[in-house]
């Protein structure tokens, strides 16, 4: 009688639990809350239930995943079961409540579990509960769709799970499946709303960025159309991003800059070589500026895959805001167009100047040439001199007779710009023309500028560090041939040819950089008209004994002789030039005369030596 009473009492309690759980499930929309409450109530009213897990099916992964558990370590969250895998997978596939009433039944089902999952389960509870004596599994089915599985395990043999427990779990699962489905749908709705809000923010952000980009593009384009320079453009960009900016050309010179907030120009110039090592034609790079806590963020300025230079932003930290990125992107585009425009204008200007030069050399219509002279500021009433500057790397290739190496062409333009400005300070109204691999400078002369037209003054202009920084690394020398002065425009062709001849002869006489005035070459021009073997014979007859002298003093004697002859036999000048004692000089001159069998005081003997030395320079 008492047993019947106890059974009835259990039924009443379970019915009350079902009503309570039904109210609980219907009052909540949070999936985690529903699953946790469901599992807790199940274990409360199932006497043999020692632990439980609720799996929900992930349709994308096609796996059963742990969403709630009691009696297990958190390691169990890693378990993911395939349909048909273990007791849970078998229940999911069959869509029927299943009772595994003995240890042997449980083990047969667990044997279908993959090794990785078995290891997790073992680590989770086998040390605490050596055996699962019985298990009940019940699918959560809503409208013929299985949402997941409730699993209850029994570890204590004296209270095994039975059919009543399975029926109780089945009844609970019907209401639970409805609640779980509603909660999952609610979760999806919340996630969809979140996604919608996120997409709206993205769209709003993109719209604002597009509007800013369009306004900025129009502003910068207007600046270019109104004649603003690259310097004006980078100043505007600097204000917009509140950073200092520089532009580097293809030879790593700082062409334009705005440095109002960060580092001084001298530090950047001092580190120009190391900056150049960080530059890339394809992507952005970062250079840590020495002696400061600033970085230089470098972006190539590109048009049609050709790099025209680099835009550098000086900042402690990377530019992360989209506004700054858009500003630099649009700025680089406009700067590329501006630099391209400058190059094209310069090319047109140089072509017209080239035509002007051809007319000066070839035309016999002096009235037409006179019009061109007035157009280009050539004063036909003034005296002029022509300087031909050669910048030619013999390794550079030609195509149809014209240089096409982009670096060489760019270097030539930059050199022309720099030297034109430098020469204008000494020779007002200088006209510069690029012709082939040469740069032609037409120098206007007057009483003041004539004093500037010396080899020493021109060397300061042509052979300084600034010029070397413009030249490409593959070619660090330039040479110049300079004509005689001329006043009549009809003499232009002859003077031009003289400058070219001076350049040609200079290249035969010297290695590396040189400046040769045509007037210096009168004797050498005459000598060059003779066959080389005639010159060699004369040198051998005149200086052969000294050239073949085996004594260690040979080189001293040669230097002494050359200095003495070039000073026109000036004993005092030679002594000071060589920084030797007078007695030493007298001894050397006497020994030279003995070796050569000549008298250096004799005009004819000294003339022969002078001619032989001139010949040695051109041999």
Automatic annotation (TrEMBL):
<dbReference type="Pfam" id="PF13556">
    <property type="entry name" value="HTH_30"/>
</dbReference>
<dbReference type="InterPro" id="IPR042070">
    <property type="entry name" value="PucR_C-HTH_sf"/>
</dbReference>
<dbReference type="InterPro" id="IPR029016">
    <property type="entry name" value="GAF-like_dom_sf"/>
</dbReference>
<dbReference type="InterPro" id="IPR003018">
    <property type="entry name" value="GAF"/>
</dbReference>
<dbReference type="Pfam" id="PF17853">
    <property type="entry name" value="GGDEF_2"/>
</dbReference>
<feature type="domain" description="GAF">
    <location>
        <begin position="30"/>
        <end position="190"/>
    </location>
</feature>
<dbReference type="InterPro" id="IPR025736">
    <property type="entry name" value="PucR_C-HTH_dom"/>
</dbReference>
<dbReference type="InterPro" id="IPR041522">
    <property type="entry name" value="CdaR_GGDEF"/>
</dbReference>
<dbReference type="Pfam" id="PF13185">
    <property type="entry name" value="GAF_2"/>
</dbReference>
<dbReference type="InterPro" id="IPR051448">
    <property type="entry name" value="CdaR-like_regulators"/>
</dbReference>
<protein>
    <submittedName>
        <fullName>GAF domain-containing protein</fullName>
    </submittedName>
</protein>
<comment type="similarity">
    <text>Belongs to the CdaR family.</text>
</comment>
